[in-house]
Amino acid sequence: MAVTLESPESAGCATEQGELSSRAAAEAFIGGVCFKLGPPALIGAELEWLTVQGECSASGPSAAPRPQLSALADALGPYAPRSIAPDSPALTLPGGSRVTLEPGGQIELSSAPYDAAAQLCDRLRDDARLLRELLESRAIRPVSVAADADRRPKRLLQLPRYRAMERSFGGIGPFGKLMMCNTAATQVSVDAGADRADVTARWTALYAVGPALLAAFACSPVLRGAPPGTWASQRMRAWLRLDNARTRPPVLDWTDPVAAYGRWALDVPLLCVRGPGDEAERGDGAEWSAPPGATFADWLSGALDDEVGRRPDTGDLAYHLTTLFPPVRASGHLEVRYIDAQPGDAWTVPVHVFDALMSSPEVVAEASSIAAPQAGRWVDAARYGLADPDIRACAVALLRLAAEHTATDDAARAVESAAERCRRGRTPTEDATERLDPRPPEAVT
User: Fold this and answer.
1) N or C: which end of the chain has fewer CB within 10 A?
2) Beta-carbon contacts of residue 133 (< 8 Å; ≥ 6 apart)
3) What confidence tens digit (pLDDT) does each residue in 109-123 have?
4) CA gap 36, 192 in Å, rounded
């Protein structure tokens, strides 16, 4: 599901002009747009791929040049995002997916939301197939890896948002540009919940199961340009290390995520303050910046009047929310962001896992109970993956719980297979390689 942040008419937290009257009004606005209440029924996903142009290289799957933006725009035609083709109609693909581009040339499909995981997977698989055909018309190939092991990070998109992001993260360390340009994820989105109590239960579960499922699907051990160190998920390492204030909310202390998310969001430093007009968004050389260390709450209180020259409105706050990158982001729905891009079509497995684990309040509660001992172990999960026996045992238990509650027999078999893979301590990439060549390693010459 694509991120949309719109203020509901009934939010009652902003004036008719979109102004924010107080911090309380801003927190209420966030609660209204980030947590849409209603019986949970829908599921969506976002798939990302690295892209290369030209001949395949024997040295590595991404050891080829990044595509030219003009070639990407030509290949995508009416489906091209306006970030690379300002006059494009930016049509959705036949299955309902929207094409977007990440700063380093990674291509992303954002699905429409669907009532059933099986339908989502069918439509998204069809759209992914069409996307590959479109890209191949200009000798561009999507690469199903979560981290670029072959190329140094290079930003292709010149939008002021990404210039500001690179500048901000660059002052912290090397991981910002690596994340922006050299990583890819599988993201799954589910409805927030029927009411605040349901939201709290689902939110708590998605965070509790995070370390174990991060480890279960970790498959990015090599990321060129990353500092030395052995990690199961270099992609998640980059996310965890690029900006703590923006990527690590203190969720273990949150008994009411709707209220707490609003408080946290206002106290995250501003990434940038947008300039006027659409032309700046397309990258006409405009520079967006923000006073170092200043938070949205500072701007709202008037502390930045001299530097910025105006107070923020609801549009500024909605934009600020898109610059937050926690492992689970509240975007009306709940967006799970901690899964590595999976090899081939293996992305369907985490889709079915989250669909199953969120299938009823009872399953949500059981998943939280299983995962509780490993909750919060994000760094250990990213570093050691399934080599940590406690995390591995938790991952296997969660996957077997999911297999019991999938909506179809095919999904149950796929999730049970993933549980067995994890029990053996094998990554998704190793599993995919084994299926292609089932001989034992000593038999391969």
Assistant:
1) C
2) none
3) 999 999 999 999 999
4) 6
